[in-house]
Write a structure and sequence with these properties.
The complex is a heterodimer of chains A (about 40) and B (about 525). With about 40 residues, chain A is mainly alpha-helical. Chain A contains 1 helix and no strands. A two-stranded antiparallel ribbon of chain B has the order 1-2. The longest helix of chain B is centred in the first third of the chain and has 36 residues. The chains are: A mainly alpha (about 40), B mainly alpha (about 525). Chains A and B meet through helix 1 of A and helix 5, helix 6 and helix 7 of B.
């Protein structure tokens, strides 16, 4: 694959980390709902 | 369009794929990974289909004939898990891997190593899941919904079920992140978001759905695991927990999951109908807004799956009307597909036939869904074969027909040869006839009161069950024609770059078969020619 420019690489890393954080917060958030309801 | 896209045709085969097994184990190429997803999903389609045939064999006549009731329950559970997570979802991810980079002018997916990992987790997950069939206590038999406390009675298979569901979730989340990151960061500069092809748009929305709900499923099954092994009582009434809470959490995942399996299908059909109608897609922007509306609404309708558990009247009314509201954006889509065909110069090659059948038959599934949204009616239909008929109309002539349509549409681009059109049409007609023979009688069975997930039934249901079983056998055998088409896919005449009569989109600007590396150099697109269907 062609080398991507640094701006694109930075964008990819930033977007991926934000999305991973969203996924993790949904996972932990719903377990927290369970804890609060139990 | 070929002349409009400069510099897009250079073939960079100077460093092609590795040879042998290493190519498939370590590949980071989106086309290789797309192929692996598609082959894996087809394999799972046949595994899940075989389980369906065991179910239909048992149900062909009243009384118990072939399998033990516990094994029958395992079959309904495993059939659903394999088809949902192993066949339909990976098949759409396979199409996404193959087509999204080519449709947006990107050289590959943004995170190619993670892409490889996303795929290779799947065979491990399904290896674990299928191995439970041979464990003491048998495979999970609580239904794909895994409701406690029933699921906690699963034998040795329980932790393996939970682990495999976690692995499927991790794979899906990584795939979703990859797709969003690729679309957001790697589109060719001239392609603004609203100009993106519908397949890309529907997958972007689907990926956000995946990202939001797969962790919710993971959270739910983690809590099941701790209830079973670590003394918690999230869902155990005896310990102060609430089993109904599991149902709420599960369906908060489960209903968007339905749209995860249908939105990419909308995208595929929205690519195919314009090509074979020789007209731009009618209402491209409204299609985007409709898909986004459906995705949003999918988060606020979950409790329509559980009207019978008991909930306040206000809750029932809210979930009933919210569910009915989904018919509006879905109707926009159906009317736009019809509007695209209106006065078009239509031809009926195999992809178009599957896409047309999708529009008709998915709409039947949509209408029966509307019937199920009505609370007093749903209390009658709940857990009956009417529900089985409804969701199979959405998923088989819906999702799976769209997958077939997409496979036939892009197959010449992948192989460089035209497939056997006669065999393709035979596959279409056999599938369409038998899918209706299988699932249409189930509406009557459900309305007459036959419950789902049972191996035996009252003799009054015998005739329709026999018809459905004959249909299922016919549908299963029909899919062997598709295997024949795939096995002979490289024997047809050479395909041109455009394959069809002036299709729109960047994927048709590269040669057929698509080179191992495409769009290594930034693409410069004449926007008026390359995206005529968009503003």
């Amino acid at each position: 694959m062609t080398e991507l420019d640094s701006e694109t690489r930075k964008g990819i890393r930033r977007t991926a980390l934000i999305l991973a954080a969203i996924a993790l917060s949904f996972y932990l958030g719903f377990i927290l709902i369970g804890v609060l309801n139990a | 369009m070929t002349t409009a896209v400069a510099d897009a045709h250079e073939v960079h085969d100077d460093h092609g794929p590795e040879k042998g097994l290493r190519r498939w184990l370590f590949t980071t190429n989106h086309k290789d990974i797309g192929t692996m997803y598609l082959v894996f999903s087809l394999t799972m389609f046949f595994v899940g289909g075989f389980m369906a045939l065991i179910i239909r064999s048992e149900l062909a006549q009243p009384g118990l004939q072939f399998v033990h009731p516990e094994f029958f329950n395992s079959m309904t559970t495993m059939h659903a898990l394999v088809m949902v997570f192993g066949a339909v979802m990976p098949a759409f991810v396979g199409l996404a891997n193959w087509m999204i980079p080519m449709q947006i002018g990107a050289p590959d997916m943004a995170l190619p190593r993670m892409n490889n990992w996303s795929f290779w987790i799947l065979p491990v997950a399904f290896g674990i899941l299928i191995s439970t069939l041979f464990m003491p206590g048998g495979a999970p038999a609580s239904g794909w919904t895994m409701y406690p406390p029933l699921v906690l009675q699963t034998g040795d298979a329980f932790p393996f079920l939970i682990f495999s569901v976690h692995l499927m979730g991790i794979s899906s989340i990584m795939g979703a992140i990859n797709i969003i990151v690729t679309i957001i960061n790697m589109r060719t500069h001239e392609m603004t978001l609203i100009r993106m092809p519908m397949f890309v748009w529907t997958w972007l929305i689907t990926a956000y759905l995946l990202l939001a709900v797969m962790p919710v499923l993971a959270g739910a099954v983690t809590m099941l695991l701790t209830d079973q092994f670590f003394g918690t009582s999230f869902f155990l009434a005896a310990g102060g927990g609430d089993p109904v809470m599991f149902q709420h959490i599960f369906w908060f995942f489960g209903h968007p999951e339905v749209y995860i399996m249908i939105l990419p299908a909308f995208g595929v059909v929205s690519e195919i109908i314009p090509t074979f109608s020789r007209k731009p897609l009618f209402g491209h922007d409204s299609m985007v807004y409709a898909a986004a509306s459906i995705a949003f609404l999918s988060f606020i309708v979950w409790a329509h799956h559980m009207f019978t558990v008991g909930m306040p009247l206000t809750g029932q009314m809210f979930f009933m009307f919210a569910t009915m509201l989904i018919a509006v954006p879905t109707g926009v889509k159906v009317f736009n597909w019809v509007g695209t065909m209106w006065r078009g110069s239509m031809t009926f090659e195999t992809p178009m036939l599957f896409a047309l059948a999708f529009v008709f038959l998915f709409t039947i599934g949509g209408f029966s869904g509307l019937m199920l949204a009505i609370v007093p009616a749903d209390i009658q239909y709940h857990d009956s074969y009417f529900v089985v008929a409804h969701f199979h109309y959405v998923l088989v002539p819906g999702s799976i027909f769209a997958l077939m349509a997409g496979a036939y549409y892009w197959l010449p681009k992948w192989t460089g040869h035209m497939y056997n059109e006669w065999a393709g049409k035979l596959h279409f007609w056999l599938s369409t006839i038998f899918v209706n023979v299988t699932f249409f009688p189930m509406h009557f069975l459900g309305l007459a009161g036959m419950p789902r997930r049972i191996p035996d039934y009252s003799t009054q249901f015998a005739d329709f069950n026999m018809i459905a079983s004959i249909g299922a056998m016919g549908f299963g055998l029909s899919q062997l024609v598709f295997v024949y088409v795939l096995l002979t896919a490289k024997q047809g005449e050479k395909a041109t770059a455009e394959v069809w009569d002036s299709p729109k989109g960047l994927e048709w600007t590269v040669p057929s078969p698509a080179p191992y590396h495409t769009f290594d150099e930034p693409v410069h697109v004449d926007r008026t020619v390359a995206f005529p269907q968009n503003p």
